[in-house]
Amino acid sequence: MTAVVESAPYTVEEVCEHFDPVMGLEVHVELNTATKMFCGCANAFGAEPNTNVCPVCLGLPGSLPRLNGAAVESAIRIGLALNCRVRERSGFARKNYFYPDMPKNFQISQYEDPIVFDGYLDVPLDDGTTWRVEIERAHMEEDTGKSLHVGGATGRIHGADYSLLDYNRSGVPLIEIVTRPIIGAGVRAPEVARAYVTALRDVLRGLGVSDVRMDQGSMRCDANVSLMPKGTSTFGTRTETKNVNSLRSVERAVRYEMGRHAGVLLSGGAIRQETRHFDEQSGTTSPGRPKETFADYRFFPEPDLPPLEPSADWVESLRAGLPERPWERRARVQTEWGLSDEELRDLVNADALDLVADTVDAGAPPEAARSWWVSYLAQQANTAGVALTELAITPAQVARVVAMVAEGTLTNKLARQVVDGVLAGEGEPDEVVAGRGLAVVSDESALTAAVDEALAAQPAVAEKIKAGKTKAAGAIVGAVMKATRGQADAARVQELVLERCR
Amino acid sequence: MSDITRDDVAHLARLARLAVTDDELDTFSRQIDAIVDTVSAVGDIPDDVPPTAQVVPQTNVLRPDATEPSLPREAALAGAPSAEEGRFRVPRILGEEL
Amino acid sequence: MSDTQRSGAGASGEELLSLDATELARRLHAREVSSVEVTRAHLERIEAVDGDGGGDGVHAFLHVDADGALAAAEVADRAIADGGPVSPLAGVPIAVKDNMTTTDMPTTCGSRILDGWRPPYDATVVGRLRAAGLVPLGKTNLDEFAMGSSTENSAFGPSRNPWDLTRIPGGSGGGSSAAVAAGEAPLALGSDTGGSIRQPGAVTGTVGVKPTYGTVSRFGLVAFSSSLDQIGPCGRSVLDAALLHEVIAGHDPRDQTSVDAPVPPVVEAALAGARGDLAGVRVGVVSEFAGEGYQPGVSAAFTDAVRVLGELGADVVEVSCPSFSYALPAYYLIAPSEASSNLARFDAMRYGLRVGDDGSRSTDDVMSLTREAGFGAEVKRRIMIGTHALSAGSYDALYGKAQKARTLIVRDFTAAFETCDVLVSPTTPTTAFRIGERIDDPLAMYLADLCTIPSNLAGNAAISVPCGTSADDGLPVGLQVMAPALADDRAYRVAAAYETARGESTGPRIPELRALEGSR
Ligand SMILES: [Mg+2]
Ligand SMILES: [Zn+2]
Questions:
Q1: pTM for the complete prediction?
Q2: What residues of chain C lie within 8 A of the CB of B17, using their CB?
């Protein structure tokens, strides 16, 4: 395929001088149920190809779908957490189109009557304000299999000689969460998009319904973008950008499409309605297959599944079992931990709230827990180029380090070395302390001996201290710390020096 | 009343992945036109009649989320026209990456 | 089959073929005859009269599994000999329509597109047959994917009516009914989407039942029109059908449209009906199913059957179901719509036929070439009609209106069943037509299902029981008895009472076939 040359994108500021952006975000979330949506095959990532398949998820003739109750409960819980209404009577429909990764050549989805609808999510933005994103619907559907493209230059679909199909993912339960058009965000549209997906991920993680790993595809975002000329209210032609595999990419993809649309429109061109693919490397999008303008999916009610009519009792029992929602949790910890608005925002922005809370739950005081995650550990994550949540240290391990500092076993400096050891895979904090020989020298007689030795080595200094110039003690403390290779409690050494010079 | 043309049949055949022949376009357009004409009789029914999609007298039929044995991979692939590396081998796919 | 396997039963072998399943089961349980003997007699019969599809035989079977059948028969004989509890039909041979999956036999659905496919699982009903000790003989012929009323749409050639080999045995389950009529199997399974059990039953002089929708699991039945398809029994008597009905019916968690309710007491009802008393039973004659298009001999036989019902004590009234006029159009929209989706999976990717994969073509091209080569004309026609009916531009006017028609038909049944316990009609407007007579006129073919379709759309139970022959051509006529959903027992009771009153055995069509055997 020849590369499509794009006009240089405008910045969002330039775009918004002429246009108001309109966004619609569709997020597909794979549920982490034990089994698939319509069969008893394991819902597992990374198994050998075609080992988690059966007549149902292979779409074999004569097979029938059997709806997974846990998936329905997850869908309702997601809806409730997103302030949605639960439809009194909903059902499944078939979405018909041919594609080899879809064994029946139709997808069982929901169409006119999604199980939950009409909700919203209050999304925290960087400046501390909140943006309300309206949720149109969330519906259940099944995932497709995966293709491996063989031959051709790139291993991509274009130019491949043939493809190999693995249906392990076929029938994995998906919830598709669709926003209403997001209008009025202006230059903040890219930020709102990222913040929404982040907030949604946090809600879903809190519910425990999905692994929400964008890198593994268990959470996938399609971003619809269009521009309307300032002062009008008619939506422009939209494009749908797929393949957006990280939170950062959501923001970049929206920004790029805004700029690209403006470039096309301002030069007198027209936007084609199409799907586009986001390229992580270049941060640009390129066209996919143009949508057969009105792709005719010939939806009709799925005859193999009876309707769902969740009773009020069922819905209320699910509501009662919902965990604290992220924004509720944020309000609570702010009070309990005595945080300023700014401190709270830093925590949230650093994606550290859950980690700190878990560290507190593991016994650490909130201040110490917070300080570790937002400063030293945040730096380490940054250096390693990974998310804070992906650091190889658990809240429980951080809490243990905090405890060792509190009981005097470690100094702050030693504690950082212990953390480095844990991050380097040297084991639990106690194992690192033992392995690296890092415990504070707390044997009083050994310390006293070291102090006396240092005083004897620097008699002039000793005299000054004895004469009341206590500031001179620093030199002796330094010598003792050097002699103990930093493993002494400097404050205690100071005390000892003054004691011996009295 | 229905007017199903050769072009319509060609379009339907494309949607349905049927590589129909020229002769078939003639025969099918004539037959389908006649059939659609006949079945269009349902058009007389008033719009306010509610639809019936199925006659199952039950709702909320759910399966417990418990794993059941999958097929052995050899059985899954046994009917495949072509297979490779434990996967179904299919001709090259034209279209977008999903 | 080798000569050493022959039973040498002679006349007694022939006698076994003329017995109904109830009597066979009695003799098996009394150990007057073994299942191996019974099975062998039927396998020989198949060998003798079924032919190879080339035109001179009944051609009821697409696949016969003699070794498997004899092995199953031995197992049944041992179970009976052990004296433990065995199912009432243990040891009785049965034929299975070839749109139900079987692990030990191919499943073709009468289509080239499933070439070479061996299902890795048994349909629930097949599992139930095996568990009950019945002996599957083989898979029977059908219109491709059950789309048709004559079996002429089978990719493997038509089945022939044992009453007249130049005529159709009905469809789509013509193979199953022909096998029962020809003495090739005492029982068979069929599937009924618009009449595919009852209409073949009527034109072959056998009994066929479409149970209430959802009462027999569809798991393993290759779907034609999922909201209409229902598996049911074929037999030589109402009691035979009832016995098989009780084997196959019952809740199945593998089919979520399967009704979680007790199976209606159909055997008890058939036995009660056979005592011949219909006093107080209100029988409604559907006035719409008469007049133009109904063969005079069929109408006469039906009128006579209604007279018999009255003599048995039934209160016969006429009822009108005006919306039944929408049944045929609604059916020929709903069934093709669902079929267009159900048959999309036959795409050359995972199983079955693959055509045109020369390394240069795309999946789309290979799918289209395969489906073009693998499907017959009727299947293609219905797929395209369904694709049209569901497409955005015609959904409301076609598929949507057909769903509304369905509501009206359900309402007509509900109203009629307020005043009647059962409804009756001829099963089909004409007797068996000649092979080739309607093949180029789909609309004429569709009329064969005029009387049977409403019960599929509404999901209620219906049975076709032989009611003599038409005076104008000497061919069998069927009486259809329709009952409300989950009241299948009512249809069985009335049908059994009528069957007993008429008295005449329908037995297998042995004379013609003996002639046939002689010619081979
Ligand atoms: Mg979707
Ligand atoms: Zn499965």
A1: 0.87
A2: 344, 347, 364, 367-368, 371
